[in-house]
């Protein structure tokens, strides 16, 4: 179910997707929560632009990797909560494995002189 | 939730349609995000307002973010298209005049062209459903010395057989003859139109019967059991479409015949109700005793590879041989013409149809030109609007798309109305076409390829002419239109000239159409003015075919008609009655004549009719000399005759008195009920009555008492005080009171009969052409109005300046009128040239009117100039009511 617009070297969009999927692995979250989680988990290195985040979230939802529900947040506001679908979980595993393989290969290349 | 491509597609589609919900959700989602971040900022120590502001700033350009997210969820192109659509509708609603004119123009163009092309296709190109029908040919013998000769296409049986045996160009040849078939149905007798067919007829036409079978070679043998085949129309009207009738026996003309099959609807050869098998033999014998032998109409199918020219050559050779065997049937100098089946039936109507085709093509051109002009004018007026939109960031593609959508809306509306007009128009035309002008089996339906063509034209024209301003608007120079508040001249000089040129062309085309319509109208009126020589009003006509087994001699015939005439005379409301064998404006049996005591070199011929004593008074034919016959002379079958003035002029010159001369009517010797020594004494001379149609010169004619022979078709005429048709029932009752087995046919009024025979064809052409000319005139009015109105509006500023500088209101009026009349004037001049050039085309359809008739042409010119003035009225009034101060301020 790969998005046909994604080229093999297009890591940026794919990376964001991967991070989003990972962030939701342990439970449902709203968009703001996802942004904060990524920021915290990367120890402030990665900061997700909202301009990229929301389009990505909606795209993943449309593709069926995420499902969404409207609920009330802890401050009694209406918020949209995203969670992984079965397909999303499978995709997460695939992408993680792929990413690890790629980054390992790149690391090896960089190590040689 | 559905996943996969289809699911995604459907979701996006759904979201596009209910996009408001999507927007609201997105707003909420982002608002929540901002609120959470503001909260975090507050926790970090910022002020309330500061926290909010920082959070908002971090989110960035909300609008852009929302749009980008939206793009994922909805079909943006669908949304913009919908928006373009609603915008276009609004724009059109704001200019209802333009929209109405554009749609009307389109609809008229499409409607008229589709309707006419359909008729032409079905009548001229594919009138018959028979396979290979365009290779069906008839053979006509024309008198080479008479230019208007209609020719002879009917042959005696032995002649027919000779042609079939000797020719080398037809692989199948058949013939048919007409026959009255009296058929007992219920308690009365009806007359059906019978067609006698020679062997191989059904193979020739190649259409399989609907039910049952057609005739086989065996059925044509003289000793075969009598059979017949039923035509579709008769099957529906007389047998109720009942399939079980096949195999049953019916009595036709006294013979019991088995019905073996029914033909399909598109088999209409000879417009026959029933088809009877006959094998013609060399002994020329009547089909039924006591009747004239049938005349056979030959039809052959050209062998593959044989051309018409070859057939003509071959048949001319044969005709030359046969003219020695049957000298009486051939003129001394004759021509053989091979005529296709279509031509034979359609004949003169073909000219009318081609004229109509030309007219409609012109009409289509005019409407396209009009539409182009309307759109260009409108586009130029909106230049500023498009410049503003381009300045605000609309892409070139976007502007073009916007205009295309507008054009599309116009096309669709115009096309829909046009198709409706075409359907209505087609039905009206079919109702108007005179019945004898097209083949009976032709079906006229809307032709799909033509409709698609017309719709394509309709869609393309607005698109093309709507594209021009879009392309111009999307150019880079935005400054000029924005600065230019319409104060300059009406667009560039080049645009103005183009618009004017288009209108000039329209006017010229319309001129041509109007002249055509005017000439046809005058021709038709001239035809109506032709004096027939009698008064056909208030006369009922009916033909009475008598069962031939009982009515063969003059005595038998008289024993029917004498009491009948008496009874009819006694009916209330009847002024006079007569029996007759022929009806004006066509008349009678052709015969050679001899006059006692006169010698002549060339052949003398005349027409003769058999009638009763009341004939001349029923039809109000003037007696110029002597008298008509009286009842006693008719009852005794005395050998007296009445002749017409042409007869006297042609054969009795040198001051010889006509009364008392003795004339030999030779053909009476060949009648089945033969008249021996057929010498008749002239006792009266009457005024000429048309007997070769309305347009051909009158032939010499004689009238004889109907009682002299028992042969020949007869009928009665009844002159009534009131409406003739009201007496129909009573007449029928009296006929059946005398003899139950007589059928009434061709019943109607004399006026109707003449109308169908002589006026219906020209009337059709004239009505149609007038309709087109009117439509063309309407289109031209719209065109002139739109151009002048637009130009005036653009020049409001200029007019205001002029008036401020001292021009009067009448000067403004002259300016506007000048604009309109200049265009029309040039158009009229060009149209005049075109009409003169095309005059030859129209000439063949005209009668007694020159194709360059100055009165008609002058009237049309005046009419168009008048229309021009009328079209300028509204803009002129607006121009003269301009307040100079307002105009100068006008943007």
In words, what does this structure look like?
The complex is a heterodimer of chains A (113) and B (891). Chain A has a three-stranded antiparallel β-sheet. The model of chain A is unreliable at 1-11 (pLDDT under 50). Chain A is globular. Chain A is an alpha+beta fold and 113 residues long. Helix content of chain A is 57%, strand content 14%. The longest helix of chain A has 26 residues, at 86-111. With 891 residues, chain B is of the alpha+beta class. Chain B has four domains: 4-74, no CATH class; 146-330, no CATH class; 349-527 and 757-889, no CATH class; 551-740, no CATH class. In chain B, the strands form three sheets. In chain B, strands 1, 2, 3, 4, 5, 6, 7, 8, 9, 10 and 11 form an eleven-stranded mixed β-sheet that branches. Chain B has a six-stranded mixed barrel with strand order 14-15-20-17-19-18. In chain B, strand 3 (170-185) and strand 4 form a beta hairpin. In chain B, helix 7 (157-166) packs across helix 10 and helix 12 (349-381) runs parallel beside helix 15. Chain B starts with a helix and ends with a helix. Chain A binds chain B through residues 1, 30-32, 35, 49-51, 54-55, 58-59, 62-64, 67, 70, 73, 75, 77-80, 87, and chain B through 1, 3-4, 7-8, 11-12, 25, 28-33, 35-37, 39, 58-61, 64-65, 68-69, 71-73.
């Amino acid at each position: 179910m790969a998005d046909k617009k994604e080229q093999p070297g297009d890591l940026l969009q794919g990376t964001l997707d991967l991070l989003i999927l990972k962030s939701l692995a342990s439970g449902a979250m709203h968009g703001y929560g996802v942004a904060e989680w990524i920021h915290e988990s990367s120890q402030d290195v990665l900061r997700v632009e909202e301009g990229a985040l929301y389009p990505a979230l909606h795209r993943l939802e449309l593709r069926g990797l995420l499902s969404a529900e409207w609920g009330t947040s802890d401050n009694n506001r209406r918020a949209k909560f995203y969670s992984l679908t079965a397909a999303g979980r499978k995709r997460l595993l695939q992408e993680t494995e792929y990413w690890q393989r790629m980054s390992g290969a790149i690391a090896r290349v960089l190590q040689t002189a | 939730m559905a996943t996969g491509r289809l699911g995604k597609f459907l979701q996006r589609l759904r979201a596009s349609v209910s996009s408001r919900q999507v927007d609201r959700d997105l707003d909420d989602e982002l608002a929540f995000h901002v609120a959470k971040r503001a909260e975090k900022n507050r926790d970090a120590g910022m002020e309330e307002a500061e926290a909010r502001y920082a959070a908002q700033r971090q989110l960035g350009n909300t609008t852009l973010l929302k749009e980008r997210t939206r793009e994922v969820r909805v079909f943006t192109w669908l949304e913009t298209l919908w928006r373009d659509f609603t915008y276009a509708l609004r724009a059109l609603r704001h200019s209802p005049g333009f929209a109405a004119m554009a749609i009307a123009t389109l609809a008229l163009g499409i409607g008229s062209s589709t309707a006419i092309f359909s008729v032409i296709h079905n009548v001229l190109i594919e009138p018959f459903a028979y396979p290979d029908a365009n290779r069906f040919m008839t053979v006509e013998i024309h008198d080479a010395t008479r230019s208007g000769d209609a020719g002879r296409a009917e042959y005696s049986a032995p002649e027919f057989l000779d042609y079939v045996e000797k020719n080398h160009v037809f692989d199948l040849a058949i013939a048919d003859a007409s026959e009255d078939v009296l058929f007992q149905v219920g308690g009365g007798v009806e007359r059906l139109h019978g067609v006698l067919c020679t062997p191989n007829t059904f193979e020739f036409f190649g259409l399989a019967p609907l039910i049952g079978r057609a005739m086989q070679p065996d059925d044509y043998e003289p000793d075969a059991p009598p059979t017949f085949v039923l035509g579709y129309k008769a099957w529906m009207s007389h047998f109720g479409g009942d399939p079980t009738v096949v195999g049953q026996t019916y009595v036709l003309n006294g013979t019991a015949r088995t019905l073996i099959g029914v033909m399909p609807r598109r088999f209409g050869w000879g417009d026959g109700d029933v088809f009877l098998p006959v094998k013609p033999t060399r002994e020329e014998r009547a089909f039924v005793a006591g009747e004239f032998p049938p005349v056979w109409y030959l039809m052959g199918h050209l062998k593959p590879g044989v051309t018409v020219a070859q057939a003509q050559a071959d048949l001319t050779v044969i005709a030359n041989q046969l003219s020695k065997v049957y000298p009486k049937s051939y003129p001394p100098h004759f021509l053989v013409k091979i005529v296709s089946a279509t031509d034979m039936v359609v004949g003169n109507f073909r000219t009318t149809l081609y004229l109509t085709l030309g007219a409609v093509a012109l009409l289509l051109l005019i409407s396209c030109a009009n539409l182009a002009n309307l759109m260009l004018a409108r586009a130029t007026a909106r230049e500023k609007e498009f410049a503003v939109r381009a300045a605000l960031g609309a892409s070139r593609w976007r502007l073009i798309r916007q205009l295309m959508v507008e054009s599309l809306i116009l096309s669709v509306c115009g096309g829909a109305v046009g198709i409706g007009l075409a359907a209505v128009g087609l039905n009206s035309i079919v109702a108007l076409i005179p019945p004898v002008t097209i083949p009976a089996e032709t079906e006229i339906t809307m032709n799909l390829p033509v409709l698609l063509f017309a719709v394509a034209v309709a869609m393309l024209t607005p698109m093309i002419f709507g594209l021009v301003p879009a392309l111009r608007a999307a150019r880079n120079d935005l400054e000029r239109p924005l600065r230019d508040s319409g104060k300059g001249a009406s667009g560039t000089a080049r645009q103005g000239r183009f618009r004017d040129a288009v209108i000039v062309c329209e006017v010229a085309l319309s001129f041509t159409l109007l002249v055509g319509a005017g000439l046809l109208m005058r021709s038709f009126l001239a035809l109506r003015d032709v004096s027939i020589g009698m008064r056909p009003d208030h006369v009922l006509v009916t033909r009475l075919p008598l069962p031939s087994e009982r009515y063969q001699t003059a005595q038998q015939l008289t024993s029917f008609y004498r009491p009948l005439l008496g009874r009819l005379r006694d009916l209330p409301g009847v002024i006079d009655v007569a029996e007759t064998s022929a009806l004006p404006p066509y008349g009678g049996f052709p015969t050679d004549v001899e006059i006692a005591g006169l010698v002549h070199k060339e052949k003398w011929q005349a027409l003769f009719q058999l009638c009763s004593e009341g004939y001349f008074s029923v039809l109000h034919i003037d007696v110029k000399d002597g008298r008509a016959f009286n009842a006693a002379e008719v009852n005794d079958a005395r050998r007296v005759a009445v002749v017409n003035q042409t007869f006297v002029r042609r054969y009795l010159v040198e001051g010889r008195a006509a009364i008392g001369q003795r004339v030999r009517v030779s053909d009476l010797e060949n009648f089945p009920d033969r008249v021996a020594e057929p010498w008749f004494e002239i006792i009266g001379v009457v005024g000429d009555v048309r007997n070769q149609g309305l347009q051909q010169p009158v032939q010499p004619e004689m009238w004889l008492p109907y009682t002299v022979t028992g042969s020949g078709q007869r009928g009665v005429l009844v002159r009534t005080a009131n409406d003739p048709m009201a007496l129909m029932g009573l007449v029928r009752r009296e006929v059946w009171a005398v003899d139950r087995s007589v059928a009434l046919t061709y019943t109607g009024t004399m006026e109707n009969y003449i109308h169908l025979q002589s006026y219906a064809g020209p009337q059709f052409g004239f009505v149609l052409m007038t309709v087109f000319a009117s439509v063309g005139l309407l289109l031209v009015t719209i065109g002139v109005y739109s151009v002048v109105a637009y130009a005036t509006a653009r020049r409001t500023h200029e007019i205001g300046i002029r008036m401020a500088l001292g021009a009067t209101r009448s000067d403004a009026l002259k300016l506007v009128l000048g604009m309109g009349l200049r265009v029309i004037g040039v158009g009229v001049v060009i149209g005049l040239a075109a009409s003169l050039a095309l005059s030859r085309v129209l000439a063949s359809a005209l009668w007694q009117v020159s194709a360059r008739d100055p009165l008609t042409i002058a009237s049309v010119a005046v009419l168009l100039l008048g229309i021009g003035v009328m079209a300028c009225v509204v803009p002129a009034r607006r121009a003269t009511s301009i307040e100079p101060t307002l105009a100068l301020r006008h943007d």
